[in-house]
Amino acid sequence: MSTPTGLSDGAISVEFPAEAADECITHDGILPGEAPWDKRFALHMFRYRQIQSELRTMLWERFPSCVQVDLRAWQEQMRDRIDTWYQSTPLGNDLDAAEQKILETLEVTHRTAIFHLYRPSPNIPSPDGQQGVAMAQAAIKVVELYERYFRRHMLSIYWRSIENIFLAGTGLLLAYAQFPAVREVIDFASLEAHVHTCASLLWGMVERFPSFQGKRDAFDETAKKVLEELRKARTEVETGDFGAGRSTDLDIGPSTFQAGLDDHGGINHGHMDQSDHHHLTAPWLQGVGLDDHLTPFYPSQGDLFSFQDFDIMDFMDNSFVTDSNPDAHFSTR
């Protein structure tokens, strides 16, 4: 969620866990012997957490003025690391159904990492066209995968899923509006279909996690306004009727991403009961725009939520349940 880390990787001196069965780790050294699958998978996820931590550090933290970093070169290296991580997922021949589902759903973990690598951030606020394409393609795949998992009752940590869907949807809208290269590879009909899928998923997921109703409503209002503006711009381009001061570019301004928001970042729904107000505020969309300094991804200090609505969190970005017990939680060993 791009929040600050509690302890930076540079402050950690403990060695990475050994890739050996626990009984093979002795006072006299590490003996030969492969670790069981659950430990190998745990180590695999620890490496993913290291990738997440580096993404957060490189893209969101301020570097000292004396430090020179080639972020473009780092992005290329990180993309290779993310792909290598996914390709090196530990497999097994005797996995149970829950473990097999975990492996199946690692694809969305992989695509989410790619999305975060290329989305606008404080240190790279203006990605280029090809990075915009990579972000849009990752966002589309995230949406498609979440739709599949949701239909098959494979999700249980709904607050995390809602965050991912919300970011993927707004990221896709931003990429299409801002980058001509994206519009060359994604047609408007496909954009509308994916955005509508995002909205449908958010409605279904918020039924399981009502505290994020405001985020769902913010997406609905924003997506409606953005699609209207894009549709209008496309019509003007096709007819040649741009009006005074209008260009042929489809880029839309910051006011579009403020659709449906009042001056305090809340949803304009007219009169509402005061007790419902905490569900309908959307501070995470304050200041959202398409210029070089504003993106729909910067969390504000007021973007708070409570963990009281669920009782367990595992180290996965997604957790899974069986079709026979859709309300049960899965936790790793």
Automatic annotation (TrEMBL):
GO biological process, one term: positive regulation of transcription by RNA polymerase II
Taxonomy, superkingdom: Eukaryota
Keyword Transcription regulation included in the entry's annotation: yes
UniProt cross-references to InterPro entries, sorted A to Z: Yeast_MetPath_Reg
Gene Ontology molecular function, alphabetical: DNA-binding transcription factor activity, RNA polymerase II-specific; metal ion binding; sequence-specific DNA binding
Subcellular location per the Swiss-Prot or TrEMBL entry: Nucleus
Gene Ontology cellular-component annotations: nucleus
UniProt KW Nucleus keyword: yes
Keywords: DNA-binding, Metal-binding, Nucleus, Transcription, Transcription regulation, Zinc
Descriptive protein name: Uncharacterized protein
Protein's organism: Microdochium trichocladiopsis
